[in-house]
Amino acid sequence: MPVEPLRGRVVIDTLNYDPARQGAVPEIEAGDTPPHLLLHEHLRDAYVVKAFSTVFFKHLPQLARPAGAPDRSAVPVAGDHPAAKAAVATLIDSLGFDAYDAGPLAESRRFAPGTPAQLAYLDPDGMFAAPARPASAADLAALLDKAN
Ligand SMILES: NC(=O)c1ccc[n+]([C@@H]2O[C@H](COP(=O)([O-])OP(=O)(O)OC[C@H]3O[C@@H](n4cnc5c(N)ncnc54)[C@H](OP(=O)(O)O)[C@@H]3O)[C@@H](O)[C@H]2O)c1
To answer: Which domain, by its residues, includes 64?
Structure first.
């Protein structure tokens, strides 16, 4: 990913590093940077905000709801820059989701692969093949807490 054009820009980090599903990357395994902070480390002068890493793309249109709908889903967001996080929250709202502030970027570990929050919208019986299940902010808060 190019560094220079992204200097000073808000970058949404959707990346998941999941050795169990995709195979281990030796450089990541040997490095000091936790996988959920790799993009931040690479784009030091961008405003990296972690979001959408927990939502399977086919589930986005299934879960989207107007603001205030009782079954509107929440999407966890983590970032170190309040203004960047607010901009991403506005985008998330416009796409039909509530943004759930999970804290600074380092806290995105709580919705990384292998955590309960990563599975928030999946039906355990059908997983990715099944229709998505809505997850509210309260549902998400409970799942994020399980990773502590
Ligand atoms: N798809 C989803 O529903 C979803 C949901 C949540 C999070 N995510 C996460 O988002 C990330 C992208 O997922 P995706 O579904 O968009 O994957 P994808 O369709 O396989 O796209 C991966 C992209 O990364 C590029 N790439 C792969 N290896 C590279 C390398 N060594 N150097 C430079 N570029 C490289 C590929 O380039 P080429 O096309 O040139 O190969 C491709 O453009 C993943 O970390 C995934 O876990 C995906």
So the answer is: 4-146
The number of distinct structural domains making up the chain is 1
Where residue 22 sits, what CATH number does that domain have? Answer: 3.40.50
**Distance from Cα 70 to the centre of ligand 1, integer Å:** 33
Place of tokens 């692969």: 113
Instruction: Render pLDDT for 82-96 as a digit per residue (tens, 0 to 9).
Output: 999 999 999 999 999
Ligand 1 center from residue 16 Cα (angstroms): 9
In this model, does residue 148 exceed pLDDT 80?
A: no
Longest dimension (CA), the chain: 45
Q: ∠ CA(15), CA(118), CA(111), 5° rounding?
A: 70
pLDDT above 90 covers a percentage of the chain that reads: 95
Computed over its alpha carbons, how large is the radius of gyration of the chain? Answer: 15
Index of the ligand 1 atom closest to the CA of residue 18: 47
60-69 as b/e, with b when 16 or more CB fall inside 10 Å? beebeeeeee
Query: Quick check: CB of 128 below 6 Å from ligand 1?
Result: no
Provide the token pair at 9.
């820009």
CA of 21 to the centre of ligand 1 (A): 13
